[in-house]
Design brief:
The chain has 10 helices and 8 strands. It is α/β, with parallel strands linked by helices. It has an 8-stranded parallel beta sheet. It is globular, with a radius of gyration of 16 Å. The two termini are 15 Å apart.
């Protein structure tokens, strides 16, 4: 994985399901190829295999469970992600919270399967606690700003700056990303100036009238 990185969470928006997931992922692949910026896509669970088989950018799941393969109905084990050719998974998004013990187990299971983890946190304190679990990346996303179009890197820059400082004190190998409200290239630039090593965004890209142009502008800001 190269840094800075742009991570695109498709969530389960209608605009990003099925063939739309592939279309958005192929746009990301083009922009990554043209700009040299690392771009990660996170399609919904049922679209993961299709997308991973057709694009060369890293594909992450939106969630993984801590349980190993076995009698766990409805679970998504890390092994299934590896079998589908994925690069890693998001964890503990504000819309898919996990208990601390489950986060620890899920991070370890991803690592054991040579998969990367992006742990979502809500503030500086939870970011510091999360760093002790040794994920590859932490994405700081104040939940009250998610989907608002108000970027945390501009509205609450102290959260990003302090999260970077606290995480690095606990584990300087963890890369800190900035999420919540990231909507344009100026938000990306602001996040990087605060010490973040990338951004995590969703609706701004998925619901954009011209997502490829938006993403290219963001990549150029990187």
């Amino acid at each position: 994985m190269k840094y800075p990185v742009i991570v695109l969470n498709f969530k389960c928006y209608l605009e990003a399901l099925g063939e739309n997931a592939l279309r958005l992922s192929q746009m990301a692949e083009r922009v990554a190829g043209e700009t040299g910026v690392e771009i990660v896509v996170c399609p919904s669970t049922l679209d993961l295999e299709m997308v991973a088989s057709k694009v060369r950018v890293p594909v992450f799941a939106q969630h993984v469970d801590p349980a190993p393969p076995g009698p766990y109905t409805g679970s998504i084990p890390a092994e299934s992600l590896k079998l589908k050719g994925l690069a890693g998974s998001l964890l503990n998004h504000s819309e898919k919270r996990l208990l601390l013990q489950d986060i620890s187990a899920a991070v370890a299971r991803l690592r054991d399967n040579s998969l990367l983890s992006i742990l979502c946190t809500g503030d500086q304190i939870t970011s510091m606690a999360g760093a002790a679990l040794q994920p590859d990346m932490i994405a700081v996303e104040p939940p009250e700003l998610i989907g608002t179009g108000i970027a945390v890197s501009k509205a609450k820059p102290e959260i990003v700056k302090e999260a970077v400082e606290k995480v690095k004190k606990v584990n300087d190998k963890v890369h800190v990303l900035c999420g919540a409200g990231i909507s344009g290239p100026e938000d990306v630039a602001a996040a990087l100036r605060l010490g973040a090593e990338g951004v995590l965004l969703s609706s701004a890209y998925v619901k954009s009238k011209n997502p490829e142009k938006l993403l290219r502008d963001m990549a150029e800001a990187v």
